[in-house]
Structure formats: structure tokens, C-alpha cells
Design brief:
The chain is of the alpha+beta class. It folds into 3 domains: 20-49; 56-109, SH3 type barrels (Roll); 113-230, 3-Layer(aba) Sandwich (Protein Transport Mog1p, Chain A). Helix content is 29%, strand content 33%. It has 5 helices and 10 strands; from the N terminus they run αααβββαβββαββββ. The strands form 2 sheets. Strands 4-5-6-10-9-8-7 form a 7-stranded antiparallel beta sheet, covered by helices on one side. A 3-stranded antiparallel beta sheet has the order 1-2-3. Strand 7 and strand 8 (194-203) form a beta hairpin. The protein is globular and about 40 Å long.
Length: 230
Amino acid sequence: MQDQAPVPPPPTEKKGIPVLGWVGIGCGTILILAIVIISLLIGWCKRTVGDFSEFQRNPEKATAEMVLRLHPEVKVLTQDEAKGQMTLRMKDGSERTMSYEDVVAGKFVLPALPAGDLPLATEDLSQLPAWVPRAPGLKPGAALTLAEKDGRVSGVFSSASDRPTEEIADFLTAEAEKLGSGTSSKRSTTVNGAESRNLSFERGGRKLEVVLTRQPGEDSRILIQFDGPR
């Protein structure tokens, strides 16, 4: 009689977390990540635009403060909400009092002029320095404010274009690179279809600060602050 081969023992069941358990962990991880991301975004918004309630209470003041956060070299000394103005300490140590509206328009980048002299405000773009790029698809009504002092020209160039902000940003970047080597930075956000792009270039002794915005169904808005030898 032939001996029968021994029957192998049943395979040991591997213990672990069932599929539903992994799914639960995955969902929990996603929820935690979402909470962390939202918290970071809220913190970033507060650092960038300040207290949201301030925008509701005094949007002009809050917008001026937001613009100045992009220029840490400019310090706010005092504010007069009743008059809608603030006193600034410039990088060179001088002090200037400006309206919130002028701050938002970027006029604080203009050099201080002798008493009686006023910056040039015009729609004649022939006054625009050749190294300041003009975006493609410009609409009529562009505005230019500039001043010259000690061989340098500073100003603000505002305009509108029918081109998307991404195309404008690419064009301005390519034009800025023609100024030579230097530094640059870019940042963009989109909230509910509203786009915002910030570009900064410093090349060949010339500076360009660009803000691009676009609301759904509207033209792109372009604000360029410039400073450098003409």
C-alpha cells in the first residue's frame, strides 16, 4: 500500500488593512491636505491683501496698502483716512504725502521734483522711453505719467489690450530680456475667472514692474511702472 503524500496546510491569511480601510485613509489624507492647503491660501491672502474686512470698510486705502506691499523699500509713516492720503518714506529717506488714488496709480515711483514742477501726464506715447515695451493689441486711451531727474526717467504707463494676459506676459518678458542680463520674477493667480499677473524685471540699470489683470469677458488691463536712464 502506497503512502499518501501529506496534505499541505492551508495558506496563512495575510493580515492587513482591508480595501475599505485604505480608501478611508486616502479620503482622510485628502481631507487633511485640503484643510492644510486652504489654511495656507488664507494665510497667503492675508499677507498679500491684509484684512478682508478692511476692503469692505475702505477699499481705496486697502488697495493702496496692497500696492505698497509690493514695494517694501517704501515705508508708510502716517495716514489720514479723512483726507484719503498717506505719508511715505522713500528709499532715499525723503518723505512724500500722496493720495490713496495716486499710490494705487503707482505715482510714488516718480522722482520728487522741484517746487512748481509737475510730472508729465499725457496720452502721447512718443514720450515713452524706447526700452519700455508696449503690449500687443493696445486699445486707444493709454495714459502715461512720467518725470525726469538726474538723467533718469520714471513713470507709470497704463493701457488696455484685447489679448489674453498670458500672451501679453510672454511678450513683455521677451522684450525685457533684450535689456540684458539681470533679475526677474513672475507670479500669477486666477480666482473665479479673474486673472492677475505680476512681473518684475531689473536689467541694465532699468526696472520694470508690471501688473496684468483681466476680468471674464473684458479687455486685459496693463500697468507698467518703469525707472532708468532714458
